[in-house]
Amino acid sequence: MIFKNLSHITFWIIVLVICCCTAQVVNSQEKETGFSVFADSIIKVNHKNFGDLEYAIYKNKNDTTKMRTLATKSQQQNYPQGQAFANIMLGNQYRNTSNFDKSKTLLNNALVISKENNLPEFEIVSLNMLGVIDRRQDNIKSALDYHQKALELAEKQTNKTKSIKKSIAVSHNSMGNIYLSLKQEDLALKEFIKSLTIEKAIKNKLGLAINHHNIGAIYEAKGDLKKALKSYQKSLAYNEEINSDIGRIICNNSIGGIYVKQEKPEEALKVIKPTIALAKEKQDQFYIASAYIRLGWAQNQLGQLDLAKKNITKGLQVAKKYDLKSFIAEANFQLSSVSEKKGNNALALKQYKEAVALDQSISNEKNTQYVNRLRFQYEAEKQTNQIKTLASEKMILEKRNETTFVVLFILLTAVAGLFFFYRHKQVKNEKQILTLEQDMLRSQMNPHFIFNSLNSIKLYIINNEKENAVYYLNKFSKLIRKILVASTEKEISLAEELETMNLYMNIENIRFSNQINYNYTVEENINIDVIKVPSLVLQPFLENALWHGLASKKDDKIINVDIIKRDPDYVIIEITDNGIGRNASSKIKKNKLLNRKSVGIHLTKKRLENFSKPFTTNYKLTIEDLYKDNITAGTKVTIHIPINEMFKLKTA
Fold first, then answer.
1. CATH class held by domain 467-642
2. What is the CATH number of domain 271-363?
3. Run of H or E including 69
4. Which of 31, 95, 201, 346 stands the most exposed, by the fewest C-beta atoms within 10 Å?
5. Phi/psi at 559 (nearest 5 deg)?
6. Per residue, what are the HEC states of 441-476?
């Protein structure tokens, strides 16, 4: 009896499912038939440019079924604009679900159709969209090539329609994102401002939303989290106006990331959790990966280590599946932190090394050099084209063909000469920087320091002082990690530098039986998260203070580091010790230690000199003996490091 009832119920369930499916198929067919008629009318009107066609199809452009219908009908009725447009829209939809191979195929189809039928507006859009795909996959060189070609083609058009202006804005915006990924924030900012200016002029709210978000990313990269949050919220407001779910996902993901950096994990979770659900609904794998990683980051801060590991791993799996290199690196950074908190230091170090290696492969010197070279070539070609135009006009007016040709040839030769001179100078400078960085690393990681530090920790172990041994071993491992990471960076934030020096002093203090009283102070009006300094620039001065100033002193050993801002062009760092002074030190210590000191200071001066080159002001360094009642009372080192005031943007 029970089986009969079950069979009866099963039968009606199957009937119900068949009815639902049939209804969906019928609705889909009716929908397709309705659009088929609409597509015929679009083709009959024969819109010539991209903007008009997009306006006519606007509500249907994200429907893949309808766009396939448009592509088929446009091919049948020989309407290349419709074919190209449909392929672009389909390519964008596949890109948003991270099906990059399928997306590239469709966009390349659109590019070929556009070229064959001389449709520059469609060609420009195709190039830009192909660049966006490569940028998402961190393929820096090819992404920049696509956007550069799109920009060049757009600027050549004499009749710049609204669609072309939008494409120029997209090119500048995308190039800004590329510079940002290579940590060239100032170049990125210039591109975003160019894009924002165009979007304001054509009143494109989507473009305004995108650029305000990207400017927020620059503030975030500079360490100004309040301004970054404000820009992200402004972008979100524009996305709410145009009802863009993708925009909501992007902005809320970034806002959640800011809350995490501000150590507000509860606020972050409120924003990120619904963002994951929305990203899944849109099948946007790019932001699914990012949101899971940031969710795990917030949970890590709350001490929910198992949940954090689970969600970061989910993000990592998505990132690996779709080859999202920057998110793979970010996930490994976060997993390293979780592993360290769980006490698995070996795994933490392995994950950290993987993250650093991948991060460096994205923003390596080759990519940076390639981008700078391409940018220089573009500017040179642009100027050359302007020279050609002016020369042609002069030739028509004055009928001096031969003279103009000679002038043009000389100018082109001069441009080529300047380019090769610039490259030679750049290569020479890069070689000098690399040599300095290598020498600096050797200076920080000398075998004596490592051996003596480990020997000091070993004594704690021998004396059965386990807590001290573990405490200082953790400090030592963190210091070594920071030195290795800092040695790969030309500059770091002043906050990171002070944190590294604090670790260094902790380790060195073991050998002084913890007699050194080390302190640092920062004036209230200084944002040490924003100010950049050469990495590990303070270490040689602290080392000299320790081993030449305080080592021979019996008690009351003090080192103070004061961060001061008396001049808008500089941050001033004063390192003061109450040691025996330089004269007494030079009599006691000669040979090896003296030589080492001079090498350390010499390297630091060279690095400060190189760091100061982009600024209008040069660094200043003074070392003076301190006296009290005509008796030596220590040494003071004063370093003036040039800075840029935090940029002010009129983005309203």
1. alpha beta
2. 1.25.40.10
3. helix 64-76
4. 346
5. -130, 125
6. HHHHCCHHHHHHHHHHHHHHHHCCCHHHHHHHHHHH
The three-class DSSP label of residue 625 is strand
Q: Is the Cβ–Cβ distance between 619 and 637 less than 8 Å?
A: no
Tokens of 171: 């090119």
Q: Which two tokens stand for residue 377?
A: 């070539």
pLDDT single digits (tens) 591-633: 444 444 445 677 788 888 888 887 878 889 999 988 888 888 8
**CA distances to 393, 443, 483, 526, 532 from 492, in Å:** 51, 18, 12, 16, 5
Q: Phi and psi at residue 473, in whole multiples of 5°? A: -65, -40
Closest by Cα among 521, 505, 628, 504 to 557: 505
- Point out the least confidently predicted range of 72-81, 316-325, 599-608: 599-608
With CA atoms as reference, report the closest residue to 503 among 485, 481, 521: 481
State the Cα–Cα distance between residues 135 and 362, nearest whole angstrom.
11
pLDDT over 80 (residue 67): yes
- Compare 172 and 429 and report the one with higher pLDDT: 172
Tell which phi-psi region holds residue 44, choosing left (phi > 0), alpha (psi between -120 and 50) or beta: alpha
The closest of 599, 571, 585, 565 to 635, measured between CA atoms, is: 585
Kindly list the distances between the CA atom of residue 556 and the CA atoms of 512, 517, 552, 553, in Å, as whole numbers in the listed order.
12, 8, 12, 8
Q: Is 519 exposed, middle or buried (0-12, 13-18, 19+ CB in 10 A)?
A: exposed
How far is 150 from 50, CA to CA, in rounded Å? 15
Give dist(CA 478, CA 337) in Å, integer: 12
Radius of gyration of the chain (CA): 31
Ordered by start, the domain boundaries in the chain are 271-363, 367-435, 467-642
Does the pLDDT at position 304 exceed 90?
Answer: yes
Cα-Cα-Cα-Cα torsion 191, 194, 199, 202, nearest 10 degrees, comes to: -150
In the DSSP assignment, the letter for residue 559 is E
Contact between 539 and 502 under an 8 Å Cβ cutoff? The reply is no
Measuring CA to CA, how many Å separate 258 from each of 272, 294, 500, 536? Answer: 11, 10, 23, 27
Q: 298 forms bridges with which residues in the sheet?
A: none
What 3-state DSSP class applies to 562?
Answer: strand
Give the DSSP letter string of 105-156.
HHHHHHHHHHHHTT-HHHHHHHHHHHHHHHHHTT-HHHHHHHHHHHHHHHHH
Q: Which of 384, 383, 372, 380 is nearest to 423 (CA)?
A: 372
pTM: 0.52
Q: How many CA atoms lie within 13 A of 136 on its CB side?
A: 26
Backbone angles phi, psi at 262, to 5 degrees: -85, 5
Whether pLDDT at 18 is above 60: no
Beta strands 516-522 and 557-564, pairing class = parallel
